[in-house]
Amino acid sequence: MPSKMALPEKLNTINKMLIFPLIYLSSFIISLILFFQKKPDGFLFFVIVGLPIYTTSLSICFISGYKTIIPFLQSFKEIIILLSTGTVLYYFKREIKLLLLDKLIISFIILTLLYLFVPSENYGFTEKLLAFKSLVFFYLLYFLGRYIDLSKVYLNKYFHFISYVSIASAIVLGFEIFYNTHLQTHTGYAIFNDYYYGAKPEGNYDLSWAFERTDGIKRFASFYANPLEYGASTLIVLPVIFARYTSQKNRFIVDRTGILTILATLMAISFAVSRASFISYFFIIYAYSFITKKKIILHILHFLVALILIYLVIQINNKGLAEFIIDSINLKDTSTIGHITEWVEGVSTIIQHPFGLGLGESGRVANAAGANVGGENQFIIVGVQLGVIGVLINIAIYITTITLSYKWLYQSKGRERKLCMAVLLMKISFIVPLMTSYFESYTYISFISWFFTGLLINMIDRKIQKENKPVHVIAN
Question: How far apart are CA 450 and CA 465, in angstroms?
Answer without folding.
Answer: 22
